Amino acid sequence: MRCIVGLLAILAAFAGQAASQGIVENVITQVSSFFETYEEAPYTIVKRTNTYEERSYPARKWVCTENNAPLTEDVTENQFWKLFRYITGNNERSQSIAMTVPVSNQFTPAATGDLAAYRMCFFIGQEHQASPAQPSDSAVTIEEIPAMNIFTRTVGGYMDTDDNSRWMAEAATVRGFLDDMGESYDTSTMWWVGYDAPYKFWNRRNEVWYKKN
């Protein structure tokens, strides 16, 4: 429900503040695309077990934004809309860029203190991979994420909570599976990954990723 309310609010904001009809049309196009099939970041499955799988992701460009905040603070909504504005025209070319999946949020707990790092990214589709438009917002950057192998499994339902507790619980479950199998992985960071619009109520796809060492 929070996601739906947020979406309606942002549509109202765009409609009220848009400098041109083109920006409003871009937003409407992107929201309409929430009901369509998205282009997905490419990967190959290296290994599949009864409890998790290993995937290999090639190097690709993503558009990202990062914040530091307490673990119990939900910063993802603000990050999402920064990236959403980028793909709906807040870039050097005023270009509308198709929504893709997944939306990833790399979560890195602080070594000391209470603040953690959150880096949310949208995959940039193949049409724009070679030369993506540069963001107009200085808090948004184009990054080439190096090739990596990850461990994950897929779970359904809605993961969003104000304190990120569902993501943390799923992370603990995935770690348990990996430890049982003696896998070597980076415990200093993880990715919270979603594939579905808030309007999809069934067969949702959520994943916690750990990078293979």
Q: Can you tell me about this structure?
A:
With 213 residues, the chain is α+β, with helices and mostly antiparallel strands. The protein has a single domain, classed as Regulatory factor, effector binding domain (Multidrug-efflux Transporter 1 Regulator Bmrr, Chain A, Alpha-Beta Barrel). It is built from five helices and twelve strands. It is globular. Residues 1-19 have low confidence and may be disordered.
Order of helices and strands: HHEEEEHEEEHEEEHEE
**Gap between N and C termini:** 38 Å
Task: Choose one word for the global shape.
Answer: globular
Name the CATH class: Alpha Beta
By CATH, the topology is Multidrug-efflux Transporter 1 Regulator Bmrr, Chain A
State the secondary-structure class.
alpha+beta
Number of distinct beta strands: 12
The helix content is 25-40%
Mean pLDDT: 87
Pfam families: SOUL (PF04832)
InterPro entries: Reg_factor_effector_dom_sf, SOUL_heme-bd
Protein name: Heme-binding protein 2
Keywords: Signal
What would the keywords be for this entry?
213 residues, alpha+beta, Multidrug-efflux Transporter 1 Regulator Bmrr, Chain A, ten-stranded antiparallel β-sheet, globular, SOUL_heme-bd, Reg_factor_effector_dom_sf, signal, Heme-binding protein 2
